[in-house]
Design goal:
The structure holds two protein chains of two kinds. Chain A is α/β, with parallel strands linked by helices. Chain A contains eight helices and ten strands. In chain A, helix 5 runs parallel beside helix 6. Chain A starts with a strand and ends with a helix. The radius of gyration of chain B is 20 Å and the shape is globular. By secondary structure, chain B is α/β, with parallel strands linked by helices. In chain B, the strands form two sheets. A ten-stranded mixed beta sheet of chain B has the order 1-19-17-15-13-11-9-7-5-2, with helices on one face. Chain B contains six helices and 19 strands. Classes of the chains: A alpha/beta, B alpha/beta. The interface between A and B is medium-sized, with 32 and 26 residues.
Chain lengths: ~250, ~400
């Protein structure tokens, strides 16, 4: 079993106007096979948490720690974090000109496993994952995210999660911009990985909609860069009915 | 990444290269063997406006230059070489120079080097000619390649070393012949190279013209194609990688002056470093008699770092609508920190990420080159360019 431990994490974002503090002491502990939903109003710091875990250079950690099975994640470069088993499904996946999806996925798998995947199994697994995510086979020869629709980009993120089999996956608003059918297909993809591996999932979302498809074990509400409330799945239901108003008014 | 595609019927528009609109038709440009017909460029002319003409003044001077490149290479049976006069070269039906530097090169070289592939010869391996620089004295060169009817040949000219080289290359592709001509610019830093490559393509003949420009401070190559009869095919491929301070300029001009011919131009370039500069100009003229022709021009640039600049200008002049197709595409994309973050967040180390992007980008054009003799050189040199990355 693995554990991702976030302790008193403080993060600032570098803006043109200087450093702006976003996270003000986040504490979270996630074990393998658990799914934690991170919810909160816009601007509460949810995406900042996701990007700081992955090591985006725009975000600066000003205090606290993140460890994966005791290893200091914050000390690792972006690629080392991925090799350690962290995966971030991005809200806005980046277009990479000149690199085909096939080439990208194989390079990523090779980097993470430390050796090239066996060609026959790899091709078979990739084909099957693409079929299940209803991804057009032609997709494989296109450049990464270039000209993809919003839904295609999200499916491509989950395809990577399926192929790379991380220890911990952070899904940053994977539900945003998806229609009902696409949401179901993407959620099924995430659930397949949960069933077939020991992945721990940090599911970041503004809405409760995706939680109907991906059932969380725990729900954490982040407000103004701190965890304001924690509970089981019932907390999500309460948010569904009440919204975030009570957190916002009490936090003012 | 921006992308513009121009469908049939739009003859003139700008692709981000400023407000300059050429006032004359492409065909109106002077062509002559007489140097006096070309004024010394000032940099304001349409064909020189992107070029660092002030650094090239002695390329325009009508003065002797007896220096030569050091040329080595073995010729197989069916291929001969001889030194001939300019008059004799003109009798072979070569095209006239289109700018002053090419006219000076033709007139001031000590002799014309004429390679002949005799009719019906089919070479199975590429002829590789090394033409190396010998220093900074200005070199004038004129190379003519005549390929006889129904012959098939691949000729690679590999340029290395330090030079200041002004050349006219004249390709005469006979009826039914198939010529692949490759010019590799692997010059040392400090080299300067101006070239005009003119091809005249015979009836049902094929020309594949390939330029790979990686080395040199200033390289400016024009590749011009005209047809001597119907049914010719021309494929022009280019690959360039501009580092800090390099000016790499490539111009193509397809003069569709016969019926049923085709042309396909694909140039791709990567740029990295401060003041890395590339220029691509792709001109096509479809004359009234060019019935049923098909043409496409494509240029893509990948900017790897800040401080680099790529200009890309396709120009299509259509004088008959009775054609199969005519189009072009031009784009310039950036490799930025977000790309790097995305690739690295999937475990890919930074150096591999950069290689992946650049190799992938060039792949489309490398696949079309299909000259095994240069594949290794090419991939090694591209790796070398990447390893010199300024980041």
């Amino acid at each position: 079993m693995s554990t991702l431990k976030i302790s008193d994490l403080h993060v600032s974002v570098n803006t043109e106007a200087g450093q702006k503090p976003i996270l003000n002491g986040i504490n979270l502990e996630i074990d393998s096979n658990q799914t934690h939903a991170i919810m909160g109003p816009n601007g509460s710091g949810k995406s900042t948490l996701a990007y700081s875990l992955a090591g985006h250079p725009k975000y600066e950690v000003t205090g606290g720690s993140v460890t994966l099975d005791g290893e200091d994640v914050l000390d690792m470069t972006v690629d080392e974090r991925a090799k350690a088993g962290l995966f971030l499904a991005m809200q806005y996946p980046v277009e990479v000109p000149g690199v085909t999806v096939t080439n990208f996925l194989r390079s990523a798998k090779t980097a993470i496993d430390g050796e090239a995947p066996k060609l026959r199994n790899w091709t078979k697994d990739l084909k099957s994952a693409m079929e299940q995510l209803r991804v057009d086979p032609e997709f494989a020869t296109r450049n990464v995210n270039e000209g993809f629709s919003g839904g295609e980009k999200k499916r491509h993120e989950i395809l990577q999660m399926e192929m790379l089999k991380p220890k911990f996956a952070v899904l940053d608003e994977t539900d945003s911009g998806l229609d009902v059918d696409a949401l179901r297909i993407v959620s099924e993809g995430v659930n397949r990985v949960r069933e077939t591996t020991d992945v721990g999932v940090l599911l970041i979302t503004h809405y409760t909609r995706i939680l109907r498809y991906i059932k969380p074990d725990f729900v954490h509400v982040i407000v103004k860069g701190k965890v304001a409330e924690e509970g089981g799945p019932e907390l999500a239901e309460r948010l569904e009915n009440e919204g975030y108003d009570r957190f916002l008014s009490s936090a003012v | 990444m921006t992308d513009t595609t121009n469908p049939l019927g739009v003859s003139e528009h700008s692709h981000g290269a400023g407000v300059h609109v050429p006032d004359a038709k492409r065909d109106a440009r002077t062509r002559s063997f007489d140097v006096a017909d070309f004024p010394v460029p000032t940099g304001r002319e349409e064909e020189w406006r992107f070029s660092p003409v002030r650094k090239l003044s002695d390329f325009f001077a009508d003065a002797p230059g007896e220096a030569r490149l050091n040329v080595t290479g073995e010729l197989p049976a069916g291929v001969t070489v001889e030194e001939i006069s300019l008059d004799a070269a003109q009798e072979l039906g070569i095209l006239e120079p289109e700018d002053r530097a090419a006219a000076v090169a033709a007139n001031r070289t000590s002799s014309v080097t004429h390679y002949t592939v005799s009719a019906d010869t089919e070479l199975t391996e590429a002829v590789v000619i090394h033409a190396d620089g010998t220093g900074t004295d200005l070199v004038h060169g004129h190379v003519v390649v005549s390929v006889g009817a129904n012959a098939k040949a691949t000729i690679v000219v590999e340029h290395e070393g330090l030079t200041r080289y002004s050349e006219l290359v004249s390709l005469v592709v006979g009826d039914g012949a198939d010529l692949t001509f490759v010019s590799l610019q692997l010059w040392d830093d400090g080299a300067q190279h101006l070239g005009q490559h003119d091809a005249i393509v015979g009836k049902d003949a094929k020309l594949k013209h390939i330029v790979v420009t990686l080395g040199g401070d200033i390289v400016r190559l024009n590749a011009n194609v005209r047809y001597s009869a119907n049914g010719g095919e021309a494929e022009l491929l280019g690959l360039y990688f501009a580092d800090a301070g390099q000016h790499l300029e490539h111009r193509t001009y397809i003069d569709h002056n016969t019926a049923k011919a085709t042309s396909n131009v694909m140039y791709k370039g990567a740029l990295q470093g401060k003041d890395a500069r590339s220029v691509w100009i792709g001109d096509v003229l479809i004359r009234p008699e060019a019935l049923g022709i098909d043409t496409y021009e494509l240029n893509r640039n990948l900017i790897l770092t800040d401080g680099a600049r790529a200009d890309s200008v396709p120009n299509l002049e259509i004088e008959t609508g009775d054609i199969e197709g005519a189009g072009h595409a031009s784009s310039t994309g950036r490799f930025d920190e977000e790309h790097l973050f995305y690739l690295m967040s999937r475990g890919i180390p930074e150096d591999v990420a950069r290689q992946l992007v650049v190799r992938g980008f060039f792949n489309e054009v490398i696949q079309k080159i299909q000259v095994p003799e240069i594949e290794e050189v090419l991939s090694a040199r591209i790796e070398d360019e990447l390893s010199r990355s300024v980041l």
